[in-house]
Amino acid sequence: MSESSLPAGAATETPLAGRWSARLTLGLLLAPALLWLLALIVLPHIDLALLSLRERVGPRQYVASLAQYRTFFAEPLYWHVFVRTAVMSVFATLLTLLLAFPIAWIIAKLARGRAASLLFILCLIPFWVSETVRTLGWMILLRESGVLPGLLMKLGLTSVPVELLYHDATILVGLVYTSLLFMLVPLISSLESLDNSLIEAAYDLGANGFAVLRTIVIPHAAPGITAGCIVVFMLTLGNYLTPTLLGGKNSQWFTEQIYTQFITRFNWEQGAAFGFLLLGLSTAIVIVGLRLSGQRFGEVMRRT
Amino acid sequence: MIPSLPRPFWLRTATAVYLIAFLAFLFLPLIVVAVFAFNDAPYPAPPWHGFTLDWFAGNATKGRVGLFQDQELLASIGTSCIVAVWVTLLSLVVGTCSAFLIERARFPGKQLLSIFMLAPLVIPGVILGISILAFASRVADLGEDLFSWELDFLRPGLPLVVLGQFSFIATIATLTISARLRRFDASLEEAALNLGASKFAVFMHILLPYLRPSLLGSAAISFLMSFADFNTTLMLVGSDSPLTVMMYGRMREGATPVLNAVSLFLMLASAVIAVSLMRGSGSRPRS
Fold first, then answer.
1. Phi first, then psi: what are they for B178, rounded to 5°?
2. Chain B contacts of A112, Cβ < 8 Å?
3. Which residue in A has a C-alpha nearest to residue B244's C-alpha?
4. Which residues of A touch B93 (CB under 8 A)?
5. From CA A300, how far away is CA B33, in angstroms rounded?
């Protein structure tokens, strides 16, 4: 095609006009993104930070102070719940990893073709259903008049129906259940990229299963493991529904404290400080996890 | 170990047992929810009293309010749908713009912007909720004090719920759409431009059809995520409760199997969306 057959419009468009239209396009694309991030993410968080750093001294009178954070450390109930939430989240993350790893291995390495996709879809199905519905299922299974206590009694293991709800273990089961998929997806994608011949070679050279796992599989899957753990820990820490419903009054989850301060007591300053503490812990874990595995934020997010 | 290596009998058996136990763990809660929607008893608990459709069709005269007669629940489903439609529309528009911004545009501060775009995924939903609640109230207060504007949509209620859910679902839409845009063969676009198409025509006739699967996919995911969201919604909700908040309230009080009925309805609806999505994309879905 010769140059002259180009349409008149394209040929006569001056460089200046072109630059203007490019600027206009950029502006039109930037506006929604900036509006979204500024109005709903950046400014609200700055506002939340300011809110947490002030104290009410009279009607509509506030002074800047660290009182909200001081209350957190001075009141054992608050930081106990905070530490408890963090520790339980660590347990839930490790349990999820242990449970999900063999399944990821089966899907990525043992099952082939259609069987592997079918298994993956089976694992995916429960997560298309909302967390409320899944928690309802666990409540029907575990409560005193529920399915499992009845079964235990029929089997003669217990003489009276036992209450399986409202224990720490129940909360862990619920949290692991909700988190499984977020562990499975990064694990499967990192295991799929592991070359089988490496494992065969190690085996031929006399390594046993444990040695292969420790020296080949885990180092290779490390990025996937980190990505999964970060996401699961974050989601667990910020979960509200599962701990409050499965743990009942004993749940003592930190998000519940935030809700109580914000909505029930209308003490926004205290609630904002709690919010920032939770955000700080969550962010710290993300940063440490990324440092440990030498990955970048964007890569991890794309994996999941 | 892998199939090409010898696996002892005990290992194969253990693998199979583990797989079956795992699948049972995954599906048991869902099966129980579905089964007890049909139990002829006032509570979703064993023993089995026989099959009934009361929890779907029953009305007050029978002493059992079924799903189709439960105005409160039906209204909350309607509320959830309205919210989800708005969130989906907003997320698609902003997600498409942001995807082009990340994949195509060049401007200073782009790196920073793309990090900020991912941030909503690492901020716990509860905190997104309270920060938006606090900021919206401050803006509304300012408007009232300075200009005596009544900015009611910035008080807890459905518009705030839409904004709160949109704030993180937009990230997911952006990631889905930009993943497909990245694989676009630029020569198609160049060819069209060479043949005299305007930029707008290229967008409408080449880029949009190419992006269609990812647009449909992110629409479905946005809708489902909005419908299922609890954390952010709980903080921003006003007098009209979406379904998840309504169900949560009733679950704390110990509800009748009408909740099982509505759950079964939700499972079927999401199954329909999931299956049509898999058919549409033809590839393995990733959430």
1. -70, -25
2. 3
3. A132
4. 32
5. 35
Please give the Cα distance from B203 to B154 (Å, whole number).
Answer: 35
Looking at the structure, do residues A198 and A94 belong to the same domain, yes or no?
yes
A10 contacts in B (CB within 8 Å)?
193, 196
A119, part of any domain:
yes
**3 state DSSP class of A62:** strand
Residue among A117, A135, A258 whose CB faces B126 most closely: A258
Integer Cα distance of B286 and A269 in angstroms: 40
> A48 vs chain B: nearest CA distance in angstroms?
6
pLDDT 10s digits, B46-95: 888 888 888 888 777 777 888 888 889 999 999 999 999 999 999 999 99
Cis peptide before A149 (omega within 30 of 0): no
Residue A58 lies in a domain: no
Cβ–Cβ gap A199/B1 under 8 Å: yes
**Entry pTM:** 0.87
Q: Kindly provide the b/e burial profile for residues B116-144, where b requires at least 16 CB atoms within 10 angstroms of the residue's own CB.
A: bbbbbbbbbbbbbbbbbbbbbbbbbeeee
Q: Is residue B45 part of a domain?
A: no
3 state SS for B136-166: HHHHHHHHHHHHCCCCHHHCCCHHHHHHHHH
pLDDT in tens, B119-133: 898 899 999 999 999
* ipTM attached to this prediction: 0.88
> Which position has the token pair 């909740």?
B259
Nearest CA in chain B to A42: B116
Q: Give the number of other Cβ atoms within 10 Å of residue B148's Cβ.
A: 7
Same domain, A127 and A233: yes
